[in-house]
Known about the structure:
The chain is mostly helical. It has one domain (2-183). It is 74% helix and 0% strand. It contains 7 helices and no strands. It has helices spanning 2-19, 22-35, 43-70, 76-106, 125-148, 157-175, 177-183. Helix 1 crosses helix 5. The longest helix is centred in the middle third of the chain and has 31 residues, at 76-106.
Amino acid sequence: MAALMTAVVTYGWSAASKLRGGSAYRAFRDGLAATKLVSAQRTGTVAATLAAAETAVASLCAAALIMSLLTRPGAPATFALRCTALACAAALTAVLTAGVATVVRRGVTAPCACFGSRGASPLSAVHVTRNACLLAVLIAGVTGLAAAGPDGWRPGAAAAILAVAIGGVAALLLTRLDDLTALFGTGTAAR
């Protein structure tokens, strides 16, 4: 549940920050173009695809989280939905992590417009680490779920609330990383 909540908030926030208006979407698209990961002709298509994928992953994970809270233990559809949601979130995170790592490795100075920061800080090793941490959380969620199986542990109300709260806090830290590094003076420009 914590992994699902982390994905819901992280990808929901990311998609919302890109889709909240024309200027926000253009800033995201321009940031993507600056990475030089795709040709200028494909930037618009890739930007739309990424925003749609983030929206879909956030929605899928939200549905899985809600179903986990509302259905009886061992419901096969809920188990399949949770597995699918976490696997899709992990796959998207792996793609995004690889993209950021490629930009950093190439030494391209491109803004991080991941969560609506409007490119305040360039992509760096800090962003690769952030994405890798998210990927680790999602993989832990998938593996934990697979190990427990469809009849696995179902938390009581207090444990479910705690797991959702932990996931929310983790997502808040991930999505506001640039603000935190600026606040504590670590800077994200260091490679």
